[in-house]
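Extended Data, record Molybdate transport system ATP-binding protein
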Amino acid sequence: MNEPEPAGDRSTATEGLDAHLVVDRGDFRLDLRLHVAPGETVALLGPNGAGKTTALRALAGLQILTDGHIALNGENLDQPGTRGAQRPRWVPPEHRRIGVVFQDYLLFPHLNAIDNVAFGPRRRGTGRAEARALAAGWLDRVGLGEFGKRRPGQLSGGQAQRVALARALATDPALLLLDEPLAALDARTRLDTRVELHRHLAVHAGAAVLVTHDPVDALMLADRLVVVEEGRAVQEGDAEAVTARPRTDYIARLVGLNLYRGTASGTTVRLASGAALTTGEALEGEAFAAFSPSAVALFREEPDGSPRNTWRATVSGVHRHGDHLRVQLDGPLRTAADVTPAAAAHLGLEPGQTVWAAVKATEIRAYPA
């Protein structure tokens, strides 16, 4: 029998990241396939507890896989060896060509900015003077050339984030991992730093994986989104595809849509509750129907006139949402509706009140489930 090929010598593997992350942790299982091309940024987006951080820790080498594999530019970094004659392989974090920007940055408090950035190159054998020169160059690139002698305690949150980014990039990583990199910043600093981070990701030659629960960060920074819920990818695609056709309630809430699943027959989508929606598109079979809260009109009495979807609903909540009020409705369809403050005052909206809701068929987008 031929000797199996060593796991780290696969020359035919594709460039970039090719991973199947399987991690068992108590009752939770992460089972996620992930492919990221060089120069591409992929955002793992999902609620707390979905498995995003577990995925990032596995990629970084801080969490060993139960099964699956992690290959970066053709080299296997983690392969448990649970299948046939496959040899197990695990590469320690310090020997992976991976840069990580943690949520809390984790800069060394006793080192100044230059020495923080120089740490990675020094660990990889670069001489002290060369590493410090390299670090100074990276601080210049992130706009902190004059802050090299400052320690982390002397930096603002935005400055510390940029030092952490420079430290991660100074090692010329084939894979850049960013764990909620903007979460610790205030709103104004977050806006400015997001623009700066986007600029650096745009010219980064390696693959990049961004972990976030913030849809704005994902939409602004990533080329592609992978939505993770309960340890699995539930939807994947570019921002336009994901936001136009959400496939779970979590995604629908993120993009501000009412979403329902049912069975389509022509322009009617019948839901499991027994309610039905008339849409502007004909379909057959399992389907989603989605519409914006702004498409919902509220009335005191049952409306007439042009063909609409109408139903009696009970107001369960009213709260401010930007310049409008977001009205939560219970009834045959649990729905969110956006109305102006003037309209809310005219209708006298308050919890427990009965109203009629209406949505035009042309406002409802239907697509295959």
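Summary. The first helix runs from residue 52 to 60.
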